Every structure is written in structure tokens, then in C-alpha cells.
Amino acid sequence: MENYKEITQLCCKFINEQKWEEAIKLVDKNISRFKSPREKNGVNCLQFYNAFDLAFYQKLNPDEKFNIEDSVELCLLYYKSISLRMLNKWNELENCLNLAFEITYKENPTLNFLLITKLEKEKQFDKVVDLLDKIYPYVWKYTDFCNYLIHKSLCYTYTTHILKSKSMTSWAMEYSKFYATKKNFDLHLSRIAQDSPNGKVIMPSPVDVLKGLKNEKLFPSQNGLQFALKAYLSTIPKKQVNQENAQKYTEAKENFAKMFYQLASITLKEFKPQDTRILDLDEILDPQKYIRTNFEEKGLMPFIDVFDNDYICYDLLEECWCKYNIVEEVKFSRTKNIYVLFQSSVEKEKGNFSEKELIDFVTNNDVVFSKNTINENEIKYYEKIIGLTFGKQLQQYILNYGFLSFGSLEFYGINAVQKEKSDLVVQTNYLHNYFEKTKCLIAFESFGDGFYVLVDEKDNVFEYDNETDKLTNLKIMLNDYILKRFKEKKENDF
After folding, report:
1. How far is CA 275 from the centre of its chain?
2. Distance, first Cα to last Cα, the chain
3. Does residue 192 have a pLDDT over 60?
4. Which of 138, 234, 314, 394 could form a disulfide with 107 if both were Cys (CB 3.0 to 4.6 A apart)?
């Protein structure tokens, strides 16, 4: 066989049929023909399984110089390594992996997971933990992160307290349910059972795991998640071109969906309000078939049905979470933090929520807002400047709009251009410096002549007259107040 594709296809066939010895012989017979240089002109030569792995490595190492070689030799060594692993030929496996690491980056997750199985066999769990920490930043694929969790949880079952061991194993089992079966955790569970009273294993819930393992890497890195998104987005325009591109698109979409499905489902399973439903993976991957809505056309991927035709989605283009109404075709409640969307659903159930109506008004009228809003990470910075915490509605107002203006009516806000000079910050600090009664409130609107509208940390709205020093509770929430003022303005202008 002269053709590389024929060799790899036959090698994969042997592996699928568990003909490990035949796969090894095939690689040994042909690999010398595909040996690539280790360096050129004093610069290392590296091989990558695919263009995505190459792009992610370059993202993490922008200043590193290297030559890129075809991945033929690397793939053959990988197939041989799998076969040696399945035959428990540990010394030969290590030698094969050492050859592979000569031609690719040392943090390569796929190869390192094979090396980790050898270390686990030798019960060198300290080395396993070090290696997992080393490769964690290079994980951007769902299957790789599942393997990361599976191996990390096995380390815990041998080296840590039983409670921590159960928490990590419980998390790994839940997170990898699209990839691993319960059999993958037989060793974990049998070990835990040995240390459990009467051998009875009761696994903690995801919320308990989150509380108990706060300092652990329970999700992929931000770089990994962002790259999973970029890989998916890059395949969308090309998916109709040919079968190869269609397959890349499908794989990238599934990878991204599984990554984010876990973020949406595991962490919120214990927090979500009653009237919500986490979508099945099939619905997420093909919403046009199951929900009869083309979310992808809007740059969205749906994850949770919060009813009333509203879905919590990930906005692929804006890289944030939002709600989307499939009847009115309106996006609203943009946020980096999905918990905020669930909180808003709880408020809606209580009958105190008018954000959607506000969004509709802003969308359908000549309301001006900032295109340079701050992000969620900056909220705490501005809270520190004014010495108060923003209520949930005020926080969403700032994140979604920056400020709002409708004709001559204008509400204070914060935007990424004016920053600390934004009127909400300046006016709040001014009032705090000169008027004692306002120190627990945030400036939101001015009627002139020393007459202000302010909001507290729970989004309750107040009026304040600095001439009389009179503070009045309007007994209305912020979103309702904004909407009321807008509607009054519209009626008066008519």
C-alpha cells in the first residue's frame, strides 16, 4: 500500500475490530516511509492532528516559532500507542509516546491521556495530577475534557478523603454522559464503595459538588470554551461546500453544544425555577426540526425552554447568554452569566418582572442606548467606586443598554467610553458627598432644580428633593418605573 489514506483506514479498521497486533505490525511496516524532519534551519518541526489543534496551539503560544509538517507520522504513532495500551505493553507504549512527543507539542492532551493510563497503572498519582494540570489549558474538545475529569476523579479515589472522591467522581460521571458509560467508572465506584459505610455509595448532587470543590477546575478553561465556539463558527459558512466540510461542521457544532450543554444543565439543575426545561441534546443540535425555529440564522443556540415562547440561548456572535422569543423574534436579557437569566425567570413567576415588555418598547420605538456597554466583570469595579451593590434589574439595565434615552427623557447609566465619568457614577458620588440621605441610593434620573430619582440595592425606586431633603419611596421597581416613564412620554408626545 502506497497511499497514506489506505494505511490509516486499514489501521482504524484493525483498531475497531480490536486487532491490536495487526495494527502495530501495519504501523511498524510503513512508518519509516513517512518519517518527517525534527527541525529545519534550527527551528523545531511540529505535527498536529488537524487545523483546529494547530490554531489553538498558536492562540496559546503566539510568539513561538515552529515549522508545520504533515501529520502522517504522528497519526500512525497514535494508532500504535492505542494498540499497545490495549495490550498492556506499558514499556513499549512509553517508548512509542516518546517518539510521538518528538514531533508534536508536549502538552498534547490525546497523547498524554495514554501516558496517564500507564502512570495510573503504576499508582503514580502525584505525577498524574501534575500532568493533568499541565495539559488542562490545551483542552478545547469535549471528549478531552471528559477524559481530564475521569482521570482526575480516579486520582481522588486513591489519594483523597472519601467525600472529595465522591464529589469529583459524581461530577465526572454527569459531565461525561455523552461520552463515557458507567463502566468507565467501575474502578472509581468500587474503590469508593470500599471506603463507604456498608459499601453503600450515595453520590452528591451537582450543587453540592460545586460548593465542595470550589477551587477545582470543574469546567474547561475560558480559552478552551471560546475556541470551541470559534471552531464551530468557522465551519458554518463552509458546511454546504462538500462532504468533508459538512462533517467538520457537524463535529464542531456537537463539540461546542456538549461543552455548553454541561454548563447550562449541571450547574443549574438545582437552581432553575419549576417552569423550565433543559432541552435534549437533539433539540439543541437541530432546533429547526424539534422546535421549528431557525435559531442558527439568528446566531443562537438554544439550551433551555423557559416557556411563554422564550428560550435561554447562547448568542454565538455576541458570545453571551440571552433570552429569545420565537414568536416575536426578539433577543433580550443579554448577559455573560446564565444565572441572571434564571433569576429573571423566578422573578417573572412572582409577577414582578417587566423586562421583556421593556425590551419590546426599546425595540419598537426610537429609544437610544449605548453600543459600548461594559461587561459583567466590570460591574463590581463600578460598585466599588460608588460603594453600593447594583440590584439585579439595574445591573441588567447597565449591561444591556448602558443608558436609555427617549426624546427629551434620559436615564443615567454607565458605558465603556465614558467609564468613571459616566453620569450614573458622577451624579451618585455627587449626591453622596453632599446629601446624607442619598448614601444608600444610586442616582438614576434628574428632573432639574435638585429633584432626583434614585434606586436602592434591591431595585426599589425613590424620589429625592435636595432643597427640602425629602426622600419618598415610590413603591415601584426599576423596570416598571422605566416602562411607566416611557409610556407617559409617548402618550404626552402624541
Report:
1. 24
2. 82
3. yes
4. 138
- Compute the average pLDDT of residues 438-464: 92
Kindly list the strands in the beta sheet with 39-40, ordered across the sheet, starting from the edge strand earlier in the chain: 39-40, 43-47, 67-69
C-alpha to C-alpha distance for 371 and 373, rounded to whole angstroms: 6
Work out how many domains the chain is built from and give that number. 3
Same-domain status, 339 and 449: no
Last residue of a domain, one of 222, 252, 285: 222
Phi/psi at 442 (5° precision): -120, 130
Helix, strand, or coil here: 473?
strand
Does residue 63 have a pLDDT over 60? yes
CA of 209: how far to CAs of 214, 246, 364, in Å?
8, 38, 44
Query: 60-95 in b/e burial notation, b at 16+ Cβ within 10 A?
Result: beeeeebeebebbbbbbbbbbbbbbbeeeeeebbee
Helices (H), 351-407: 355-364, 376-386, 392-401
Residue 72, φ and ψ in degrees, nearest 5: -60, -55
The answer as to whether 358 is a domain residue is no
Dihedral-angle region of residue 314 (phi above 0 means left; psi in -120 to 50 means alpha; beta otherwise): beta
Highest mean pLDDT among 20-24, 33-37, 334-338: 20-24
In a domain, 360, yes or no: no
Give the whole-angstrom CA distance, residue 86 versus residue 103: 23
The residue among 266, 348, 338 whose CA lies nearest residue 307 is 348
What range does the domain containing 376 cover? 368-493
Nearest to 387 by CA among 437, 427, 442, 430: 442
Inside any domain, residue 361: no
24 and 173 housed in the same domain: yes
Largest CA distance in the chain: 94
Q: Which of 354, 361, 373, 469 is nearest to 409 (CA)?
A: 361
Taking only the tens place, the pLDDT of each residue in 320-341 is 888 889 988 888 777 766 655 6
One domain for residues 209 and 152:
yes
Q: Mean pLDDT highest for which of 27-41, 178-192, 273-287?
A: 27-41
Instruction: Clarify whether residues 245 and 345 are in a common domain.
Output: yes
Percent above pLDDT 90 for the chain? 47
412 contact partners, CB below 8 Å, separation of at least 6: 403, 422, 423, 424, 427, 443, 444, 445, 446
How do beta strands 368-369 and 330-335 pair? Answer: unpaired
* Axis crossing angle, helix 4-16 with helix 20-30, rounded to the nearest 10: 160
Query: Is residue 103 helix, strand or coil?
Result: coil
DSSP character for 239?
T
3-state secondary structure (DSSP) of residue 208: helix
**β pairing state of 300-307 and 310-315:** antiparallel
Q: Are residues 334 and 249 in the same domain?
A: yes
Tell me what pLDDT residue 348 has. 46
Indicate whether 316 and 380 sit together in one domain. Answer: no
**Does any domain span residue 270?**
yes
Question: Which of these, 130, 163, 170, lies nearest to 149 by C-alpha position?
Answer: 170
